Amino acid sequence: MELLLGTGNYLVFFLTIVSVYALLALGLNVQWGYTGILNIGIAAFFAVGAYTSALLTAPATAQPPGLGLPVAVGMLAAMPIAGILALGIGLITLNLRSDYLAIASIGIAEIVRLFLKNEEWLTNGVRGMAGIPRPFAGVEVFGWNAGGALYLGLGAIIVATVFIALQILYRAPWGRALRAIRDREVAAEAMGKNVLWFRLQSFVLGSAVMGLAGAVYAHFVGFISPEAFAPLFATFIVWVMLIAGGSGSNLGAIVGALAIWAVWSVTELLGRIPEEPIAGFGALRVFLIGLLLQVILLLRPQGIIPEPRE
Amino acid sequence: MTVATLKTVTPMVELAQLLIYGVVLGSIIALGAIGVSLTFGVLRFANFAHGDYMTVGAYLVLPFYAVLQLPMFAAVLIAIAGTALMAVTIDRLLFERLRQAGPLVLLISSFGVGLMLRSVVQMVWGPRTLVYESGIDLPLRLGALRIKPDHLTIIGGALLLVLTVHLLLTRTRIGKAMRAMSDSPELARVSGINTAQVILFTWVAGAALAATAGFFLALDTTLLPGMGWFFLLPVFAAAILGGIGRPYGAIIGGYVIGITAEFSTLFISAAYKPAVAFAIMVAILILRPTGILRGN
After folding, report:
1. Is residue A113 within 8 Å of residue A43, measured between CB atoms?
2. B116: which chain A residues are within 8 Å (Cβ-Cβ)?
3. Cβ–Cβ contact A267 with B under 8 A
4. In CA terms, which of A31, A93, B105, B219 is 20 to 30 Å from A205?
5. Beta bridge partners of A144
6. Banded model confidence at residue A310, pLDDT cuts 50, 70, 90
7. A39 confidence band (pLDDT: 50, 70, 90)
8. ∠ CA B11-B14-B17 to the nearest 5 degrees?
9. How far does the CA of residue A202 sit from the closest CA of chain B (Å)?
10. What CATH fold (topology level) applies to the domain B2-129+144-287?
11. What is the mean pLDDT of residues A16-45?
12. Inter-chain contact A38–B104, Cβ cutoff 8 Å?
């Protein structure tokens, strides 16, 4: 019974993290999968969403003080704030070549990271923000602590809602226009599509979804610090997830998040088997996840669930 | 330190001192940016692993210098050769096969390569800060100015390499072929240039410059697995500022960014120094997206 509960709790924890990554991968899919926009600064939008929701919802007694608003308000606000950041950077770079945006997005991630670390009055710096409200925390059902499971339920509903909305957009003329821009930019322009405007919409929408992912993450863990938004976990793994799952496919983004996070978690558990921690084991896992990306790019670039052909 | 010596630090001296730091930083950025610009010009893709090539170059000096006790110069040459070999191998194993998939897929792949190299460095040398040798690099005094010998090495070494690159691009057959391929790949191919050879040589030159830049960076600061990754932004900013694919522009861009970053500490918190490169890049992207020397 103990073991069963432990496994159950681990599974809930695992799936909640998968929900956060699924949202990040869905956001990236709108940008890269739909439109061919290279965003290497996912961490920036993820972090801005997390801090926005945290600052709006934390109690006034917290350090730094929050506004004490409901969690739903925080989650909803995380999207436009991350979107505004995307709008600013997109206006400058989206009419340039895609690799320039990739470089600029690294710059944005770096500046956001420096801001979170140095502006202690707002973010409490490297010590991070504690006391972020966690919905359902401590709720008991028949004596069982159901808080985690209930929050997972909320996360799943959010992922499902975003998934359905993005599926509708993908099939709509809007989605078709984005794919036309991705595959044949010159032709799309000749057809009278305002390429910059479509690109901007796609970049802002994708970043807003990443901001939402940040809010879901913040209210899950209850504590955030700049450390949590390092490029490895917040950017690189999301790219591997989307490419593994299938760029252009929303279902692929979710499956990729599940598959890659499973690989990542299983390898972590393997490292716990020996009594002594193995030196450099963490780095080896990172190396292997990088290798996995290369193997997928070489052998199955379309991913597990390829984008449907029309 | 007496009151008399303190008084000699006039604003002019302070500015001159900042200029020296700026030129040192600029030299390192410029070497990195030339490499990025060369590989971009010839191969048409932004290599996001370039910063980590710098890291590998810097760390490869360690075993030959600190362990085998070879002279510094020899250790650096071996590190350069090792980094070049690595760059060529990565191209053969990976980038060459992905070239038909397009420059954006190559960019994503190189992003992954950079991460893999960082983990290898961490597995071999550990995650902690290292130095080539402990002890204080006593500054030379030039009137009221103080210059560290290491800084002279970096500035002089960078000038020598910049001159070498210039001679290579203008006086040698392969250098001219590189420029031709950078200007127009199709034209270069039909005019009988051996593109495979040019690509090979571009990687060797780019990696050699990266390794030297990494060595200089570690000499000026410390060795850290993430050192090159954090340097990628100023390096790319310099390459874009100069006009991507234009090695001479990259040199100008490197020094502009290095000097501006140091002088910025007069006005803004030093914590935001890394953001200066980005601000300059954004400004050039708005005002003149092709860079100073009209890149491709």
Report:
1. yes
2. 286-287, 290-291, 294
3. no
4. B105
5. A141
6. low
7. very high
8. 155
9. 18
10. ABC transporter involved in vitamin B12 uptake, BtuC (1.10.3470)
11. 96
12. yes
Verify whether the Cβ–Cβ distance A92 to B48 is below 8 Å: no
Q: How confident is the model at residue A4 (pLDDT cuts 50, 70, 90)?
A: confident
**Token output for B140:** 């030379």
Residues of B in Cβ contact (< 8 Å) with A291: 116
Output the CA angle B67-B73-B79, nearest 5 degrees: 65
pLDDT band at B4 (very low <50, low <70, confident <90, very high): very low
- Interface check for A239 against chain B (CB to CB < 8 A): the answer is yes
Q: Give the pLDDT band (50/70/90) at residue B3.
A: very low
| Higher pLDDT among residues A187 and B79, named by residue | B79
Q: Chain B residue with minimal CA distance to A32?
A: B104
CA proximity to B120, closest of A232, A289, A280: A280
pLDDT digits (tens, 9 = 90+) for A233-270: 889 999 999 999 999 999 999 999 999 999 999 988 88
A210 touches chain B (CB under 8 A): no
Residues in chain A closer than 8 A to B237 (CB atoms): 103, 107
| Confidence check: pLDDT of A205 > 70 | yes
A189: tokens are: 């322009």
Distance between A108 CA and the closest CA of chain B, angstroms: 8
- For B154, how many CA atoms within 13 A lie in the half-sphere containing its CB? 28
Q: Are B94 and B113 in contact (CB under 8 A)?
A: yes
Residue A245 has a CB neighbour count (10 Å cut-off) of 29
Q: How close are the terminal C-alpha atoms of chain A, in Å?
A: 50
- Give yes or no for a cis peptide into B139 (omega within 30° of 0): no
- Cβ–Cβ below 8 Å for A110 and B282: no
For the whole model, what pTM was predicted? Answer: 0.91
Query: What is B84-108 written as a DSSP string?
Result: HHHHHHHIIIIIHHHGGG-HHHHHH
Q: Do A110 and B103 make contact, defined as CB atoms within 8 angstroms?
A: no
Closest partner residue to A99 among B103, B119, B269, by Cβ?
A: B103
